[in-house]
């Protein structure tokens, strides 16, 4: 195994060791499998609660956002989002919000509806 697979994903301790099918961190006692790490790496677009987002999903904004001279209020529902493979200024969602028009959002400020 490589050194990367022995690094604890929770506390980044370099002392993780294999215990059968799991890896164990002796410093924080976190246990993980390499399969779970691969699944997390493939889950690139996660909302604020850790749920996987997909193109066409509906999301809800979780905090007030400044949008030019107006504000997008917390709880605003956004339908039919499009996920961007190439982020625009760290924004990874393209969408249209009623009353505000087309804009980009970050996954960290929305939750799956």
Summarize the topology:
Layout: H1 3-6, E1 17-19, E2 22-24, E3 31-32, H2 34-42, E4 59-61, E5 65-67, E6 70-72, E7 77-78, E8 82-88, E9 91-97, E10 101-105, E11 110-112
Antiparallel strand pairs: 1-2, 2-3, 4-7, 4-11, 5-6, 8-9, 9-10
Describe this structure in words.
The mean pLDDT is 86. The chain has a three-stranded antiparallel sheet with strand order 1-2-3. Strands 7-4-11 form a three-stranded antiparallel sheet, with no helix packed on it. It is built from two helices and eleven strands; from the N terminus they run αβββαββββββββ. It has helices at residues 3-6, 34-42, and strands at 17-19, 22-24, 31-32, 59-61, 65-67, 70-72, 77-78, 82-88, 91-97, 101-105, 110-112. Helices cover 12% and strands 36% of the residues. It folds into two domains: 3-42, N-terminal domain of TfIIb (Single Sheet); 59-112, SH3 Domains (SH3 type barrels, Roll). The protein is mainly beta. It comes from Halobacteriovorax marinus (strain ATCC BAA-682 / DSM 15412 / SJ) (Bacteriovorax marinus). Residues 46-113 form the Protein YjdM C-terminal domain.
């Amino acid at each position: 195994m490589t050194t990367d697979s022995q690094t604890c994903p929770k506390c980044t301790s370099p002392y993780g060791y294999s215990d059968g099918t799991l890896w164990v961190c002796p410093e924080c006692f976190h246990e993980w499998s390499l399969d779970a790490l691969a699944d997390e790496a493939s889950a690139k677009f996660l909302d604020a609660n850790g749920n996987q987002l997909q193109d066409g999903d509906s999301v809800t904004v979780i905090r007030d956002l400044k949008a030019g001279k107006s504000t997008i209020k917390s709880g605003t529902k956004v339908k039919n989002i499009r996920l961007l493979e190439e982020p625009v200024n760290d924004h990874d969602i393209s969408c249209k919000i009623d009353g505000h028009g087309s804009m980009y959002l970050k996954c960290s400020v929305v939750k799956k509806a």
